[in-house]
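Form 7-S
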Amino acid sequence: MATAEAKIMAIEAEMARTQKNKATASHLGLLKARIAKLRREILDPPSAKAGAGKAEGFDVTKVGVARVGMVGFPSVGKSTLLNKLTGTFSEVAAYEFTTLTCIPGVIRYNGANIQLLDLPGIIEGAKDGKGRGRQVIGTSRTCNLILIVLDAVKPLSHKKLIEHELDGYGIRLNKAPPNISIKKKDKGGITFSTSVENSYAVDLDIVKSIMTEYKIHNADVRFNGDYTEDELIDVLEGSRIYIPAIYVANKMDEITMEELSLLDSMPNYCPVSAGKEWNLDGLLEMVWDRLDLIRVYTKPKGQLPDYNDPVTLPRNSTLEMFCNRIHKHFVKSFKYGMIWGSSAKHKPQRVGLPHILEDEDVVQIVKK
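Output:
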């Protein structure tokens, strides 16, 4: 019996032979859906559902306010970055595959602890389980931010390969989840509508063929934006992870000024030299920005605010979330809060639990 990998190769070969036009579009959409389902079998085999253990070193306890994972090919400088940014020792050598397991460290930045993971180098075919790719990419799915560490001498070729591996594992980088609604119904077949003109030529026939592969025969499908059939498949699969990413072009000291200027102008890129400690502050600033965190300072009654130990929260957090972060019983005894800062209309402002906090607000909690 053919394995899932063999079936994927056969389908990909059929897609390569198939001429792309309006007549074959629905068939190609069907084949893409089949590949997505087969990849799910590879990544989530029956043995894993039965409770198979994780690979050693990859079951790392999450600490701090956020988790950042470093992904890249072997010998691009991930271990050196971990050493310089966190002070945690990770073996460094000139040969490949120095790091064989996941090594965690902690960055202290803006008063917050951010966990940084040095993951083993991945290789082509990681998404299909080659090397330790499945464990590496599986751990990446638990991160709030991914640093794709590249060799500045050859960043674009490595970038595309790594993106392909992560994409095959259901990780979508620097993308928002597609706003696609699927409302199942008892009868009436498949209907398709879109809020804007679709530039990817997705039509009712393509949608029907994909929905049929997922055994959905009666549903209203609506694209609330300009999306592809691949994004419809992502919604149907339901297991996609949308994670921000920074492309860290290491060894910037080995390229010309023209090449450095080009890298610096590209979106989501941050050139550094881990060995010479160039632009590491710029990288940390970019990490903080992409994590989209806020700092909130506590102010005991009759005392000055504590600016040394902020409470770090995701942006758009409420005062209730702030209280729960300090102690779970705070909400029960909460009477009102006093706010100083950019979220206050006047200083101080008396607010309730639904109040949305902003960066560097000062909070005083008054109990019942």
